[in-house]
Amino acid sequence: xxxxxxxxxxxxxxxxxxxxxxxxxxxxxxxxxxxxxxxxxxxxxxxxxxxxxxxxxxxxxxxxxxxxxxxxxxxxxxxxxxxxxxxxxxxxxxxxxxxxxxxxxxxxxxxxxxxxxxxxxxxxxxxxxxxxxxxxxxxxxxxxxxxxxxxxxxxxxxxxxxxxxxxxxxxxxxxxxxxxxxxxxxxxxxxxxxxxxxx
Length: 199
Fold this sequence. Notes:
- This protein is mainly alpha-helical.
- It is built from eight helices and two strands, in the order ααααααααββ.
- The chain has a two-stranded antiparallel ribbon.
């Protein structure tokens, strides 16, 4: 008498197990990633929920192991970009009105550190790259996955972004003061050294 062969594994059960493991290993860092990029915590929760919806639909495309986290960051980044584009469209009229109010000078913004203000002066791409390094503590290969570019492109862009940040920081930290003798203008800080080394 032969024993019956076991039934084949249920692909739905396997998908659910993979998704559960993905959620358990990535939902906290993904939420932290989103919270730091939106103004309202509820918006971050929406981004995370949508990211996992994408992951469920594309579970077969999700990399295994440590590569899953940067893959999920890449999904969230695209969703955030789509949300920002939608916000920009909704606020287009208000932006146009603000552009016409050239006679109103806003008060200087003294909030935040010099680093935060220097970062705010950079392009969105530079800010995102530096935040992936500093906030998310991703390596170059992981950043390449998030941004959908090569590791070499990440290295070059990161070097340039750090340099631009240093230039902006030096500009913020160099208030001009007049010397007591002769009224000459002198800088309080030396200009940042060129060629900032990469971490």
